[in-house]
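hey can u check if this looks right to u? its 105 residues, i copy pasted from the old doc so theres a chance i mangled smth
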Amino acid sequence: MIFAGAMRERLSFYNVEEAQSASGYKSSQEQFMFSCRAGRERTSENYVVDSGELFHSNELTFRLRQRNIKETDMVQYNGDKYRITSIDKYPMQNEMVIKIEKVNE
């Protein structure tokens, strides 16, 4: 169960839609869906070596009330953009846990 006092972080969710112009150029557009409060759980860091190059992955975990969120949506947290890596829903408790990973731009 998540308590209102534990939800200190603000997350903004954006729906990503692809649009195609008359010339055939495809572009993705982000449409604001909603923003809500969430409780930050834990951080997991992974270091992966691929072809002699070191990659650092930093996943943030948040617990929030049940919402209509898809894994293709984008999240804005503290001014940075993140993509959703996993969604775990707990319908009996009316809450969900999402893991997000920072998008390199």
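The radius of gyration is 16 Å.
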